Amino acid sequence: MPRRGNVYVIDDDQAMRDSLDFLLGSADFEVRLFESALDFLNEVTMLPFGCIVSDVRMPGMNGMDLLKQLKNDRTRLPVVIMTGHGDVPLAVEAMKLGAIDFIEKPFEDDRLIGMIETALKQAGDEAKSEAVSQDIVARIQSLSPRERQVMDGLIAGMSNKVIAREFDISPRTIEVYRANVMTKMQAGSLSELVRMAMRGGVIRD
């Protein structure tokens, strides 16, 4: 298991690929090399989580086209774009398309390594956060229609009696539904339920 994670280098220049393979391998990354963006896309679904380091100017599918394709496919791998001198406007456009950062050639080894470490950490944290949000959404979807109505009433600040009156149900029955909601949502308190509702998109900012 690599200590620092996986890096996927995409560059049509073999000398650059070999150089980055040596640099990043020495820095304890697990490195895979790709001669073209298409070669990478053909394998991306089978690759473990990692950081993409791609040149921006390549024959065939260039770095910008790669970013567009990754965005369309909802691929959540972080991307660092390598640019030649004078390609800064292109690099800024790349960041608008989802690249985490860009670096101009020639670059300092430590700067690229630092960028990759940051990209992996940020993307890893986002992935964990996204997984939590998806889990909360699944819990919300597990509620019955009546339980969902009760939850909506609770997060709106309504008391059991008011919710009971709203749906013409006895307060005792509402208490049962409320207990079911808290159990299914795995919420230990009303404030926690509200936070989950916000995270799950029930309450919009």
From TrEMBL:
<dbReference type="Pfam" id="PF00196">
    <property type="entry name" value="GerE"/>
</dbReference>
<dbReference type="InterPro" id="IPR000792">
    <property type="entry name" value="Tscrpt_reg_LuxR_C"/>
</dbReference>
<dbReference type="Pfam" id="PF00072">
    <property type="entry name" value="Response_reg"/>
</dbReference>
<dbReference type="InterPro" id="IPR016032">
    <property type="entry name" value="Sig_transdc_resp-reg_C-effctor"/>
</dbReference>
<keyword id="KW-0902">Two-component regulatory system</keyword>
<keyword id="KW-0238">DNA-binding</keyword>
<feature type="modified residue" description="4-aspartylphosphate">
    <location>
        <position position="55"/>
    </location>
</feature>
<dbReference type="GO" id="GO:0000160">
    <property type="term" value="P:phosphorelay signal transduction system"/>
</dbReference>
<feature type="domain" description="HTH luxR-type">
    <location>
        <begin position="136"/>
        <end position="201"/>
    </location>
</feature>
<feature type="domain" description="Response regulatory">
    <location>
        <begin position="6"/>
        <end position="120"/>
    </location>
</feature>
<dbReference type="InterPro" id="IPR011006">
    <property type="entry name" value="CheY-like_superfamily"/>
</dbReference>
<dbReference type="GO" id="GO:0006355">
    <property type="term" value="P:regulation of DNA-templated transcription"/>
</dbReference>
<keyword id="KW-0805">Transcription regulation</keyword>
<keyword id="KW-0804">Transcription</keyword>
<dbReference type="InterPro" id="IPR001789">
    <property type="entry name" value="Sig_transdc_resp-reg_receiver"/>
</dbReference>
<protein>
    <submittedName>
        <fullName>Two component transcriptional regulator, LuxR family</fullName>
    </submittedName>
</protein>
<dbReference type="InterPro" id="IPR036388">
    <property type="entry name" value="WH-like_DNA-bd_sf"/>
</dbReference>
<dbReference type="GO" id="GO:0003677">
    <property type="term" value="F:DNA binding"/>
</dbReference>
<keyword id="KW-0597">Phosphoprotein</keyword>
